[in-house]
Structure formats: C-alpha cells, structure tokens
Amino acid sequence: MTNKHTKTIALNLEKSPTDTDRHLVLHDDHVYAYGGDMGIISAFPIDASSDAASSSASAKIIHQYDEAVRALAFSNDGQRVAVGYEDGHVDMYAFSAEQLQGEDSHPFLNTAKGKEQSASQSQSQDDGMDDLFTQGDDEDDDDLFSSRMEVLKPSFRLSHRFESSIRSLQFSPTCTSECYYLAIAADSKPGFLIANVTSSSSQAVYLEDEAEKAHEEEGIRSLSYSPDGNTLASLSHKGRLCLWNVPGGGGDSDPELEWEILHRDAHYAVQKPDMSAFMDYDAGDRSIMPVWGCTGTSTECVALPGEKDLHIRRSGALEKDCMILPSFGGESVTGELVGLAFDPSKKGYVVSSSRDGKISMWKVTDADDMDDDAPEGEFIANITSHDSLCTQIIWHKSKSKSGSDDQEMLFLAHENGSL
Questions:
Q1: 42: nearest Cα among 109, 137, 94, 100
Q2: Beta-strand pair 349-354/337-342
Q3: Rounded to whole angstroms, what are the CA distances from 196 to 177, 179, 204, 401?
Q4: Four-point Cα dihedral 246, 248, 252, 255, nearest 10
Q5: 240 and 264 in contact (C-beta within 8 Å)?
Q6: Residue 45, preceding peptide bond in cis (omega within 30° of 0)
Q7: CA neighbours within 13 Å on the CB side: how many for 346?
Q8: What is the pLDDT of residues 191-205, one digit of tens each?
Q9: N or C: which end of the chain has fewer CB within 10 A?
Q10: What is the model's pTM?
Q11: Looking at residue 210, what DSSP letter applies?
C-alpha cells in the first residue's frame, strides 16, 4: 500500500539472490543509486519545479563496472567522487573547479557504452584534471547502453586496499579544495581509516590502528559524519558504536595531533549483528547506520534504529543512549527499525523504515525544551507501507524554480531494487 504522493521509479538494478545491497547518494540535483552484482550506478534528476509524485522520469544508467559497486561518495564541492568495490579497492575521480563551472550537469553523469575500466586498467592521472575521457570499445549488441559515448576514467586508485569489500565511503563535510579527507570502512580489520585523497601522491592514512583497537578487529558496517564535520560515528558488524573527534579538515589541521576517539560504547548499540559478510545476506542488517541530524538551530544528535524504538544521543552527552518509545494503542511500530532520516528543516522530525514494510514518523524533543519530566521524543504515526523492505531513506528539501513553496521529498531505496 502506498499513498497518492508516492511514485515508484525503476532503477535498473537486478534482484540477486546473493546480494540485496540497495543504497542511495544525493548530490546537487541528482540522486544516485547503486547495488546488485552488475557494477551499475544509476541516476535520476530532482526537479523541484514539477511534482515528484506524478513525474514520469526514470533512472538512467550512467556507469557500469566489472566489479560490484559497494559504496559511492561525493565531496561537498563535487570536485572528488569516490567509488568503492567488492574487491576492497577505491577509485577516485578528480575534477577542477573550472571543469564544474558552466556545466549543465556534473561530469560524473556522463553516460558510457560498455563496462568501464578501473584505475588499475588505465593509466593513472596524478591530478585528475587532464585526459579524463577515453572512447569505449565494447560493441556487444546486448550491452546495457543504447548509444556509443565516452567512458569516464578514474583519475587514480587509492594505494591502500582492504582485504574485503568496501562498506562505506564518507567525505568530511569540512573538506576544502586544498585538502580532501575520505573515511573508508570495510568488512574486515582494521575496519576503517581516513585517507587524504587530494591527489594520487598525498594518500596519507589516519586512525587505522586506533579503529582496529576500538572495534576489536571487527569489520565496520557504516560511517557517518556529524553536520559540522567534527565528529565521525562508526558502527561495527557486532553493533558497537564509536565516536571520533575529527575537527578541521582543511590544510591547517594536523590529524596526527588532533584526531582521536571520543567515545566507545561498552555495550552493543545495535543488538543484532551483521553477519552478511560471512553467510547469507540480510538487507536489513547491512543497511543499519548511524544518522546525524539537528533538533534545533544548533543541537546535533545521532540516531540509531532499535528493535521497535528510536535511540538518540545528543551533542554534549553522546555517551548517553536515550530511547524514544513507540505509542501504545492505536498505530504503533510493529517491526524492527532499519533506515532513518532526519528532516532537512532541523525541526527534529525523523522518518524510519521497518522490516514489516512500514514508513513511520517520529519527533525528537529539542534540547532547549527538555526538562526532568519531558520525554526524549514521541512516535507520531505510520505514514505509508511497502511490500519490499526499505533499506535507505533520504529526506530532501528542494528550492522551487517556479517561486512556489519549497518541496520536500522522501527517497526510499528498497531491497527489490525499486525506488
């Protein structure tokens, strides 16, 4: 069951019996989707001047790789794009500010005919600014691409390779054109690290040993930066949450001196471990991640899904795990929570998905309104439901091109590959 404001869009992602990864990335005016075993990245435009619920736009395949894509990230300025693969490698696309200026769309949106070469199959570019394109050579009739176009080559491949699949890529929100830091998580130890990916010659790594110790050599299922970029949350396969102090991000900061662990949970914040790296995939377990948001103009908090409740930690008390319980009687949460998203207007609303297909709304109490008797928040209502598990939610606010009210949209990625 869906409501009248819901539009299902085909993502060209096959349903594989051995892989149910379905993830989304939002950058500028496009949503990018990846998952499945075919190495496909799809994209579709967000047009705030039209009603998304009635839009007939469909996703467009923009890249296909030989290796399955497991993570995708854009720097805030769009000058760096990172792609992580099943084999533990990470490729970097680098663009200059001049390349992005005057373009109708991001260069990464250039579609290609034929499977793309990885950085190891093509000549690496030191600065990523020259000769970024090469002609595709695949002329198979059954190729997924309908016309011959240029293939975009990665600028360079990160020298550090994990021994297992990449799970998460996150650029620091405080990156500048002088220095780009990329947090990388994988299924095996050391779990995660932060790499300087400004160029192919600047690939220093940080927090590798500290992460391995804090997470007891576990793999990491997800990473998430706070909105101000000063705190990084890491969630292990077994469910342990660690918070890291990572201030700065520009050329003047010294990570060796400033970056350190801020808090390590003594217990497991997520009770059900993610065993999908070792046995059959579970789309819900693989998709759980810490999500940051704001409940007011300056109050940041990080949220994690509970069995049937919402767990939050507020800035200034990140070690304190507070629960928001669902309602009793009437509508309530009936399935284990999986995906979360904070509202972009910073009013403290949270949308969740659960294993029974429901999409629900919560409200987190702002710290300025808290007192001894005030609840941490409240469950509001179930707003829609779907047949397939929703593995990720993006809550986006677009500026209307027509001058009408801003438009807010929820993008839901599902286990069956639909959006």
A1: 109
A2: antiparallel
A3: 12, 7, 5, 37
A4: 0
A5: yes
A6: no
A7: 9
A8: 999 999 999 888 889
A9: N
A10: 0.84
A11: H
